[in-house]
Amino acid sequence: GQNIDQPTEMTATEGAIVQINCTYQTSGFNGLFWYQQHAGEAPTFLSYNVLDGLEETGRFSSFLSRSKGYSYLLLKELQMKDSASYLCAVRDRVGNTPLVFGKGTRLSVIA
Amino acid sequence: KAGVTQTPRYLIKTRGQQVTLSCSPISGHRSVSWYQQTPGQGLQFLFEYFSETQRNKGNFPGRFSGRQFSNSRSEMNVSTLELGDSALYLCASSRVSDQETQYFGPGTRLLVL
Asked: How high does pLDDT run on average in chain B?
């Protein structure tokens, strides 16, 4: 079956760095995505990893290890507006196939 | 470029009724996927349409159905509504050749009483 695990909630301080982990067990693998979702809004795309290693986009970085079935999203210089849910999703086969989502990590940034 | 749009944004129905939700993808996007989001289950895949054909389907009962029109707009229908169908229904679109990124609409929040 498909299983994607991420912590339910995290709290971090403004200006700090936070790492949100995601582990997955899927029948196949063709890419891992991170989305940000503010309360009451649509998920917005943050990053995509298909090869091992680190992808950086501004204050956000995402890491993937395919052999370990593991990814993390790193948020630097946290701002209050980063308070949101962060969703990890895996595409489990080649082609325009549906994403399998984790239940999301609710991040609260406090002053 | 306009984003994915969904109508209506909010809907209240009673058990046994049916509902139709609409999604207009980003211009040029031909793939439309539907997801159900609930606090307990997270985002769960319903189905995906491409060129008016259902290409992928999730594990939902037959009460959930959809279709896509020639202009790539899509509708989903839920018949004989149950209390457990209360959820945020999200639509996402992607291009033909870009298999990576799906772009989500704001969702339709359905409450079944």
From this structure: 92
Two structure tokens written together for B37: 């989001």
Render pLDDT for B62-107 as a digit per residue (tens, 0 to 9).
Answer: 999 999 999 999 999 999 999 999 999 999 998 865 556 889 999 9
Residue A42 and residue B106: Cβ atoms within 8 Å?
Answer: yes
Handedness of CA B22, B25, B28, B29 (dihedral sign): negative
CB contact under 8 A, B101 and A48: yes
For the cut 70, the answer to whether the pLDDT of residue B22 exceeds it is: yes
Cβ(B89)–Cβ(B36) under 8 Å? yes
User: Residue B109 class from Cβ within 10 Å (0-12 exposed, 13-18 middle, 19+ buried)?
Assistant: middle
Question: How many angstroms away from the CA of A35 is the closest CA of chain B?
Answer: 10
B70-103: b (≥16 Cβ within 10 Å) or e: eebbbbbebeebeeebbbbbbbbbbbeeebeebb
